[in-house]
């Protein structure tokens, strides 16, 4: 006979084992980190309930069936959790299914202890009827902070957010933007709006969350300040949550609006905890972060020039908003410097209030000479810096933000370039999973904008590889400012901007000292000459050269950068830049990743093939005849794992020698519109796992040797408009799991050999192509056909581009 003690031992053991499993998976994988943390929190709550005040005995007094079922959930949950690290990152479908299993596990654990949680509450609130007025009485009056005297540029945002807020299918709406952009003002406007008050009445609850607020504190504020329930304390978050839900349910059919102002990233779980399945209950969140998967997000844009000018003038000339004795051109230049940030416009305008023209001119002159706007306006610095300081628990994310100052203003930055750089600077995973997390982290905090370059870009593509990054100018300037606090020779990252041939004063033959920087960025304009002083930078591991001139001579000191691991040379000029002295890089024995973008190649590119690179990227390069005389044999690029050739418009053929790179795992030849064939030697890439060929619009066929690529897992031929058939050998791709082929409009049928693709799990295609695959679904039991909407404009641009 099974005794109560036996169940107690089994339950405790199962709980401990599940906790260990969760802890181990949190260390091993990042794929399900949010869900695992949620389960970990649930288990901690359960543990505190079990071992407090003899509650374990009461749990074991339940019917035997319930106890056995709970132990089953714990034991089965362990197996579910341990499978987390085995789910492949590229398998979106399995990730989705497994995520649902984790969510179900969390729900089942919570449901079993629901009664215990309610008992906990009843003891605490016995005798307190939250649905009636207390002796002293209380009023659920709206205690929303007042509005500023002047509000500029929020009218259109107000109308759109109000419309979304009143939709029945939106329970949580987040207004997201960087600090100082007017999120809180917009929330206050909504709360004071007559229509909103007419719908929600007195049931508008406004709470400022801030960085360290707990769930208990939020509920405490609601009970004390909105409901006048004094001396109401909660021992646990769960106790507070249940008390709040009970109170809201007792309001009956009344609509309720809860405003959570200034929610930080670590407080994301608070929003989830405060979501109750109550009809008419809506949550409005303001945050400088974005919370994926929680309701809808409205991104608040910055002010346009007209509104920005109005706000600046109101702050600088408070009497009537009209400038007195300050020329229009000075006001316009000052508006431009503020970058559309309401906070910057307000603070800078106030700092110039009552000042004469001379102050306006000297302020602008300092900024034009390179002095940061943050030196003269500490309020702006403090406001925006809080978003960066919030990264203190993620030092690498903090460093990644600072690194963004290395790239030119108002230019798109390839996410792939950033991730390659961070892999080497911070010793991150070369697969890109954890590296992508830092991009997503910064994006969620509104410290950068992450934009997909393709409509169907997804994790199947390799995380954020198919994205590019933009950043507001003021945030870029903040990154530069924060990176420039130490003396030049001691800085960890050094950003140098050169106009003409005016090198910085510290950089001369006479005074130049060795610098300690690990990351060096040099930006030059169209007028630079080939004169470089020597630069002693023995610790540099990443070098970014931003160039605009038609010709560019690499600095000779580059050959002395013995620790260099990452090199990125990008031309932002109208025409591809002709690189001179490229052979200087041949001595860089530690260089692992190299990216050339928008440059004209010459036969000197041969020197690249002599390096020990792991990844080589040629983006928007003019190939010409540079590869005709180059020799690529098995002894060259011995460690190359990834080769990326993108938007090289004049690439007509791929040198057969590149197919001798037997360690190559990823090959991307994309948006190369002159390429009409691939070498038959392609089948020699025995270790190739990923082959991307999308948007090679003249590519008419795949080589028959493709069947030899038995390690191939991912194949992308989407928007290869000229492909009209697939070779029979396609069925020999025994390891193929993902096939992208939307936009292959010339394809009329599939070879019967596709029935041999037994490992194929995902086909991403357009509706027309999906019909071709539907005939084979019975033969391929694991196949999932994903239909994507065709982007006709993008296809047109690919053809004419």
TrEMBL record:
GO BP annotations listed: defense response
Q: Name one GO molecular function term.
A: ADP binding
Every RPW8 domain range: 1-151
* Keyword Transferase set for record: no
Q: Which UniProt keywords apply?
A: Leucine-rich repeat, Plant defense, Repeat
Matching Gene3D superfamilies:
Helical domain of apoptotic protease-activating factors, P-loop containing nucleotide triphosphate hydrolases, Ribonuclease Inhibitor, Winged helix-like DNA-binding domain superfamily/Winged helix DNA-binding domain
List, alphabetically, the PROSITE patterns matched: RPW8
Which superkingdom heads the taxonomic lineage of this protein's source?
A: Eukaryota
Could you confirm whether the keyword Repeat appears in this record?
Answer: yes
Q: Which InterPro entries match?
A: Apaf_helical, LRR_dom_sf, NB-ARC, P-loop_NTPase, Powdery_mildew-R_dom, WH-like_DNA-bd_sf
Sequence similarity? Belongs to the disease resistance NB-LRR family.
- What PANTHER family does the record point to? PLANT BROAD-SPECTRUM MILDEW RESISTANCE PROTEIN RPW8, POWDERY MILDEW RESISTANCE PROTEIN, RPW8
What is the protein's name according to its record? Powdery mildew resistance protein, RPW8
Q: What is the lineage of its organism?
A: Eukaryota, Viridiplantae, Streptophyta, Embryophyta, Tracheophyta
């Amino acid at each position: 006979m099974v005794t109560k003690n036996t169940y107690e031992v089994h339950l405790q053991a199962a709980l401990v084992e599940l906790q260990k499993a969760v802890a181990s998976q949190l260390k091993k994988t990042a794929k399900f980190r949010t869900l695992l943390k949620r389960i970990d929190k649930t288990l901690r709550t359960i543990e505190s309930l079990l071992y407090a005040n003899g509650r374990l005995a009461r749990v074991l007094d339940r019917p035997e069936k319930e106890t056995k079922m709970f132990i089953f959930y714990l034991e089965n949950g362990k197996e579910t959790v341990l499978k987390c690290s085995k789910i492949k990152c590229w398998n979106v479908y399995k990730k989705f299914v497994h995520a649902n299993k984790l969510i179900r596990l969390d729900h089942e654990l919570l449901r079993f202890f629901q009664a215990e949680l309610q008992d906990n509450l009843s003891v605490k609130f016995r005798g307190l009827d939250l649905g009636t007025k207390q002796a002293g009485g209380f009023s659920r009056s709206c205690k929303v902070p007042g509005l500023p005297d002047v509000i500029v540029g929020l009218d259109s945002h107000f109308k759109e957010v109000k419309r979304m807020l009143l939709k029945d299918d939106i329970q949580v709406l987040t207004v997201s933007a960087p600090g100082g952009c007017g999120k809180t003002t917009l929330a206050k406007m909504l709360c004071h709006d007559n229509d909103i008050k007419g719908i929600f009445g007195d049931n508008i609850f406004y709470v400022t969350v801030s960085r360290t607020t707990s769930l208990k504190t939020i509920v405490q504020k609601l009970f004390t300040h909105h409901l006048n329930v004094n001396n109401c304390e909660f021992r646990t978050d769960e106790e507070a949550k249940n008390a709040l839900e009970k109170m809201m349910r007792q309001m009956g059919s009344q609509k309720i609006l809860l405003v959570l102002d200034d929610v930080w990233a670590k407080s994301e779980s608070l929003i989830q905890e405060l979501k109750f399945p109550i009809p008419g209950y809506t949550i409005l969140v303001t945050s400088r972060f974005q919370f994926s998967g929680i309701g809808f997000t409205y991104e608040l844009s910055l002010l346009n020039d007209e509104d920005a000018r109005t706000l600046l003038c109101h702050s600088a000339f408070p009497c009537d908003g009209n400038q007195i004795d300050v020329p229009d051109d000075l006001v316009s230049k000052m508006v431009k410097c503020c970058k559309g940030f309401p906070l910057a416009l307000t603070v800078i305008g106030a700092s110039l209030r009552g000042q004469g023209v001379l102050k306006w001119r000297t302020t602008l002159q300092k900024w034009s000479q390179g002095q940061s706007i943050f030196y003269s306006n500490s309020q702006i610095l403090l406001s925006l810096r809080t978003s960066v300081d919030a990264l203190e628990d993620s030092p690498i994310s903090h460093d990644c933000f600072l690194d963004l100052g290395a790239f030119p203003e108002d230019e798109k930055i390839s996410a792939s370039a950033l991730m390659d750089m961070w892999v080497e600077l911070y010793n991150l995973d070369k697969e890109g999973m954890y590296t992508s997390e830092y991009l997503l982290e910064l994006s969620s905090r509104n410290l950068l904008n992450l934009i997909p370059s393709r409509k169907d870009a997804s994790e199947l593509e390799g995380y954020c590889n198919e994205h590019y990054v933009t950043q507001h100018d003021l945030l870029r300037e903040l990154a530069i400012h924060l990176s420039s606090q130490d003396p030049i020779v001691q800085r960890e990252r050094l950003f140098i901007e050169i106009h003409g041939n005016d090198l910085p004063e510290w950089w001369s033959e006479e005074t130049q000292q060795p610098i300690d920087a690990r990351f060096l960025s040099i930006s030059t304009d169209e007028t630079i000459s080939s004169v470089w002083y020597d630069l002693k930078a023995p610790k540099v591991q990443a070098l970014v050269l931003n160039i605009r001139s038609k010709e560019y001579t690499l600095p000779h000191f580059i050959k002395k950068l013995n620790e260099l691991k990452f090199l990125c040379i990008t031309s932002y000029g109208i025409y591809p830049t002709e690189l001179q002295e490229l052979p200087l890089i041949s001595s860089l024995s530690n260089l692992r990743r190299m990216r050339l973008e928008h440059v004209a190649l010459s036969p000197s590119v041969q020197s690249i093939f002599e390096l020990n690179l792991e990844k080589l990227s040629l983006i928007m390069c003019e190939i010409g005849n540079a590869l005709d005389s180059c020799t690529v044999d098995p002894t060259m690029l011995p460690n190359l794992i990834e080769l990326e050739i993108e938007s090289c418009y004049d690439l007509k053929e791929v040198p057969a020698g590149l197919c001798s790179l037997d360690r190559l795992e990823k090959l991307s030849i994309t948006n190369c519109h002159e390429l009409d064939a691939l070498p038959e030697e392609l089948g020699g890439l025995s270790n190739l796992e990923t082959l991307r060929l999308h948007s090679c619009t003249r590519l008419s066929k795949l080589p028959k040797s493709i069947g030899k690529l038995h390690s191939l897992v991912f194949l992308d031929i989407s928007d290869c408009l000229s492909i009209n058939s697939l070779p029979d050998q396609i069925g020999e791709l025994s390891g193929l799991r993902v096939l992208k082929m939307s936009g292959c409009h010339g394809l009329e049928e599939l070879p019967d050999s596709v029935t041999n693709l037994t490992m194929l799990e995902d086909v991403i295609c357009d509706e027309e192509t999906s019909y071709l695959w539907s005939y084979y679904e019975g033969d391929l039991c694991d196949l999932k056909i994903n239909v994507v909407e065709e982007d006709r404009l993008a296809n047109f641009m690919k053809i004419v581009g």
